[in-house]
Q: What sequence folds into this?
C-alpha cells in the first residue's frame, strides 16, 4: 500500500468530521428556517383577517428552542474535537474524548442504519498523550467498520485501563466483518505506538486497541 | 387525505412536516416519505405532480432513489433539495433527469415556483401523450 503522509491523513480525518457536522448543522438551520417561515405565514394570515392561535405560536416557539439546543450541542461537540489539536501532548480524560468522538460519528452510523454507542463507567481515565492522534486512529477503525458492516449492526465502544495502558474496544454484533479488512485501514498509522488484536465471542467480533497511558514525547512520522 | 399533488422525501421528519404545512398554506398539498423505499412505494400508489427529494438519507440516498423513481416513471418531475450540493452531485442529478437542484435552507417561494414549473411540464406531457394516443386510434380506424 502506498505510504501516505501523516499530515494528509490528519487533514482527511478533520475534513470528514467537519463535513459531517456542518451537514448536520445545516439540517438544524433548515428546520429553524421553516419554523421562522411558519411564523411569517401566521403574520400574513393575521393581516388578512384570520385569527392567530396562541397555542400554535407557543408550539412553534418550543420547537425553535429545541432546534437551537440541538445546534448548540453539535457546535460544542465540534469545538471539543477541534481543541484536541491544541497540544502534541496533553492530559485528558479518555472517556470524555471517546464519548465525544462517538457523538460526532452518529450521523455516519445513522446513514447506514447502524447503532453506535459508547459504554463507559463514570470514573475518568486520565491519559497523557496526543488526543487527536488517538481519536484519528479510533475513527479510522470506526469508519472502516461502518463502511463494511451491514444495516442493523450494533457497534459498542468501551474504554478501560490496565497498568500503564489504556484499552479501547469495539464490539461488533453480528460479526460480519473480516478483521484483516479493519487492520488494513490502520497499516499507515504509526504516529503512536499501539497493539491491536481481535477475537470472536459468540456472534460478536471484538477489536481491542491498546495505547500507552502516558507518553513523554510525540512526533509525527513525516514522509521523507 | 385530500387530493395530494406533491411528495416530500426527507429523513428529517420535522423539516418535512413543517415544509408540508407551509406548502398547504400556499394551496399545495403534500405527502411525506422519510426514506427512499417509502418514496418509491408512495409514487407507485399515487400520481404526484412533483417530488421534492433530499440528497442524504439512510438506506437509498437521493441519487439512488432518483434513479429508481425515474426508471419506473420517466415523466416524474423531481427536484433535489439538499444541504450538501456540490457541482458534481448537482450535475449528476440533472444528468439522471432531475428537473433542478436547490440548496437548503431553501426559500419557500423558490420551492413553490419549481413545483408550479413541474405541474406545467407535467400537464404538457399528459397532453402530448393524449394527442399521441388519439393519433394512434385514428390510424387504426383509417379515418
A:
Amino acid at each position: 500500500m502506498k505510504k501516505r503522509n501523516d499530515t494528509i491523513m490528519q487533514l482527511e480525518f478533520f475534513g470528514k468530521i467537519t463535513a459531517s457536522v456542518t451537514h448536520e448543522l445545516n439540517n438544524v438551520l433548515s428546520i429553524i428556517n421553516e419554523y421562522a417561515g411558519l411564523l411569517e405565514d401566521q403574520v400574513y394570515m393575521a393581516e388578512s383577517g384570520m385569527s392567530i392561535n396562541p397555542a400554535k405560536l407557543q408550539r412553534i416557539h418550543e420547537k425553535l428552542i429545541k432546534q437551537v439546543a440541538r445546534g448548540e450541542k453539535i457546535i460544542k461537540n465540534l469545538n471539543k474535537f477541534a481543541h484536541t489539536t491544541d497540544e502534541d501532548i496533553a492530559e485528558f480524560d479518555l472517556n470524555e474524548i471517546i464519548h465525544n468522538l462517538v457523538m460526532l460519528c452518529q450521523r455516519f452510523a445513522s446513514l447506514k442504519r447502524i447503532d453506535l454507542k459508547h459504554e463507559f463507567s463514570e470514573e475518568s481515565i486520565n491519559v497523557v498523550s496526543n488526543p487527536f492522534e488517538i481519536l484519528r486512529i479510533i475513527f479510522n477503525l470506526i469508519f472502516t467498520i461502518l463502511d463494511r458492516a451491514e444495516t442493523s449492526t450494533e457497534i459498542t465502544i468501551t474504554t478501560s485501563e490496565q497498568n500503564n495502558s489504556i484499552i479501547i474496544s469495539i464490539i461488533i454484533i453480528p460479526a460480519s466483518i473480516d478483521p484483516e479488512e479493519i487492520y488494513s485501514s490502520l497499516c499507515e498509522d504509526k504516529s503512536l505506538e499501539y497493539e491491536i488484536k481481535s477475537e470472536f465471542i459468540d456472534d460478536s467480533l471484538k477489536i481491542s486497541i491498546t495505547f500507552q497511558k502516558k507518553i513523554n514525547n510525540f512526533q509525527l512520522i513525516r514522509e521523507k | 387525505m385530500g387530493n395530494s399533488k406533491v411528495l416530500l422525501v426527507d429523513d428529517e421528519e420535522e423539516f418535512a412536516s413543517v415544509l408540508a404545512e407551509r406548502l398547504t398554506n400556499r394551496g399545495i398539498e403534500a405527502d411525506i416519505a422519510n426514506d427512499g423505499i417509502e418514496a418509491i412505494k408512495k409514487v407507485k400508489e399515487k400520481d404526484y405532480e412533483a417530488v421534492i427529494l433530499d440528497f442524504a438519507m439512510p438506506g437509498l440516498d437521493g441519487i439512488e432513489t432518483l434513479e429508481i423513481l425515474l426508471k419506473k416513471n420517466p415523466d416524474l418531475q423531481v427536484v433535489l433539495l439538499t444541504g450538501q450540493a456540490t457541482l458534481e452531485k448537482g450535475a449528476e442529478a440533472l444528468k439522471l433527469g432531475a428537473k433542478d437542484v436547490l440548496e437548503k435552507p431553501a426559500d419557500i417561494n423558490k420551492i413553490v415556483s419549481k413545483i408550479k414549473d413541474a405541474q406545467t411540464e407535467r400537464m404538457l406531457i399528459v397532453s402530448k401523450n393524449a394527442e399521441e394516443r388519439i393519433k394512434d386510434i385514428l390510424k387504426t380506424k383509417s379515418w
Observations:
- DSSP finds five helices and five strands in chain B.
